[in-house]
């Protein structure tokens, strides 16, 4: 019996760990183009980038378990093609494996600006990305420009300010996170950063990069050209404009690829093939919505679930109930811990039963009709956890609100 796992990061290794925990004794081949087990990613925009943690500390629990899991771990090897009908998977080392089960956990790649990227331009996804950015920050550049005010961009901006650097954050939308959060909350993110000395430019696109030629002919970024003609001078530019799911190699596989690997409600992409983590999209029955969730906790939960579901199929046992999860996310920016449970939309009504946006300490509940779709808290962990517990039982609005007496 052979299970192949594509991706040796959070979702993939959690799936491997779960297979063993569930008593699977067959072969587990795990492949990943990285030459080392990928680092746990959240500290890469926080403690490691800040220089507070050595890189080795950024390791997640499933990675630490690898020596006990009896894996055929093939690092430096990518999955290159798949025939879903026969479950044969080709690898970059030339091998072709006929698998009984496949877990697709290839995550996503940071999106880059079009064109050549001169020195000084960074994205942040891997430990290497983090260390090369960190090395530049240690040289104390005169200004860092962060393109994109999503969570990665906002965390990088906060970490750079923590290092005493001048930062400009540029966002094309009129408010940060406008696609996922109602305007007031996006305005809170703007305010938080401005109050810490970040120059925040909103509603202006990026036209291109300013480049200078250095002695010896190499090129280095010197600024960001905006669509309104302004130039933000910067020696370091961090591009945080989202990610692309790693599915290119699955073209022609027979799987449906729509915003990642399209799965059914049990995370199955085809018979004997499951997907988990940042690469997987599935209809979450709790929200009646097809979603792809780029969050740490989801990679763990879905990795566990997908492995259990795959084993049930291989063993001809009853399949587990659909993967119905309340997404959970946190972000650390300055001395603020932002935590969110649920799936808000920009059109939800926002009610703040605790604290206030002005204090930068509050709990926000998101309401859609009779449902509480999400809770977001800033430095209010107890309340957020209480609402989260309620949401796992029911999304009923009154039940969520009852936490606040
Ligand atoms: C800098 C940063 C900070 C973050 N901070 C937070 C946070 O504070 N809170 C939070 O909730 N989430 C955070 N996240 C998100 C979270 O880390 C991700 O959701 C999580 O890592 C997803 O895990 P994954 O295993 O699905 O994908 P990944 O971690 O992307 O791993 C996918 C793996 O698949 C491999 N792969 C790619 N292509 C192939 C192929 N063809 N064959 C085989 N393997 C392949 C890749 O090399 C990679 O190792 C952060 C992410 C980043 C980048």
From TrEMBL:
Residues 328-393 form the Reductase C-terminal domain. PANTHER family: APOPTOSIS-INDUCING FACTOR 1, RIESKE DOMAIN-CONTAINING PROTEIN-RELATED. It comes from freshwater metagenome. Transmembrane segments: none annotated. The keyword Transcription does not apply. The keyword Nucleus does not apply. One of its GO terms (cellular component) is cytoplasm. This is Unannotated protein. InterPro entries: FAD-oxidoreductase/Apoptosis, FAD/NAD-bd_sf, FAD/NAD-binding_dom, FAD/NAD-linked_Rdtase_dimer_sf, Reductase_C. Its cofactor is FAD. Keywords: FAD, Flavoprotein, Oxidoreductase. Residues 2-303 form the FAD/NAD(P)-binding domain. GO terms for molecular function: oxidoreductase activity, acting on NAD(P)H.
